Amino acid sequence: MHHPAASVIRNVRLDGGSPVDIRIADGVITGIDDSAAAASDTASDGVVDGRGLLALPGFVNAHAHVDKSWWGLPWQSYGGEGGTDGRIRHERARRDELGIPSAETTAHVLREFVRHGTTAIRTHVDVDLGVGLRGIEAVREAAAAYGDALQVQIVAFPQDGVLRRPGVIDMLDSAAQAGVEFIGGLDPAGIDRNPVGQLDALFRIASDRGVGIDVHLHDPGDLGAFQIELIIERTLAHGLAGRVNIAHGFALAQVDAAHRRDLLQALAALDITMTTVAPLRLPQLPLQELDAAGVRFGFGTDGIRDLWSPYGTGDLLGIAWQYARASGLVRDDDLRRVVEIATSASAPFAGLYAGGLVVGGRADIVLLDAENVMDALVRAPEREMVVGNGRILFER
């Protein structure tokens, strides 16, 4: 794919302020100046007319599954049974006939992410006895089409369980040696029915191979909270502070306030992060409590148009909207904070420094027609242009 470089984006607004020009060199923002765009300049190479649009930092999708969508294929009707295990079985039964995983299906997903403004991704990629490490290869192939314009980090994800399928632990270890940034886990109690065993195995690999851990934890209430405590203990014991994430973590929002406060303090002390896909039918992770404790969290689209659910558009701003709406957030400061979490504050989830639209920051920039950041969140207007690492990835 050819992605032309941008050298100047003229006449854009940062959070509703007066127009500025953003200067870019080698994928980095080198200057932000008051806009005095001469019409003659706008025609030269690499100079983009921002038309007075609002500029936001690129969106960070901190929890995706780009390897397993039927995007680009005919409509696939929902089938099989509900629940995590039911969906796993249905996916295992049908994925081969749909060519999942493949670089082609992943390319469709990445295109949807990018045109909606995502420039950095942490994606879980299924690793199991049926596909081996093929999914990781497919994702790497699809991501390579964007070069360094799209930041993609991979979690080797045991979607079918860890201990209940002999050989999966060895496969995760192989993936860690082959260069994935994280290994994943899945409901150590609910799926493997052996929380201590699964977590001990994962932390041993992470410690030995120098990778991070990102665990899917759907188990609710006290059962989920117990596993969060086990994760905290092991993060401390293995010296993995700042390298561990809990995805979903519904239990945190379901336990009583005192228990939640204790968990949040312990998570913050070890910089154990959280990611949410803002599920509509469950209580949301509480913004003010997480921020007050200093627990970093990010948003993700989860799977989109896959054998788990037909829903999803690939729009991370839509997930941020869903989180804000479901959380009852209405004040400007809170809406701004939600957009910050969807963008610059979550850059570390994909292995980037938290930068944003500042001199020295990575030139990941999204232009849209909105009055200010709050307006952009509540309306989620179409993206007019998406720039990743200084390269134009999408233009409407």
TrEMBL record:
Q: Which residues form the Amidohydrolase domain?
A: 47-393
Q: Return the SUPFAM superfamilies for the record.
A: Composite domain of metallo-dependent hydrolases, Metallo-dependent hydrolases
One protein family per Pfam:
Amidohydro_3
Q: What Gene3D superfamilies does this protein map onto?
A: Metal-dependent hydrolases (3.20.20.140), Urease, subunit C, domain 1 (2.30.40.10)
Q: What InterPro entries has UniProt attached to this entry?
A: Amidohydro_3, Metal-dep_hydrolase_composite, Metal_Hydrolase, Metallo-hydrolase_Enzymes
For this protein, the record's PANTHER family field holds: BLL3847 PROTEIN (PTHR32027:SF9), CYTOSINE DEAMINASE (PTHR32027)
Question: What name does the UniProt record give this protein?
Answer: Amidohydrolase
**Species per Swiss-Prot/TrEMBL record:** Microbacterium thalli
Lineage at the top is: Bacteria, Bacillati, Actinomycetota, Actinomycetes, Micrococcales
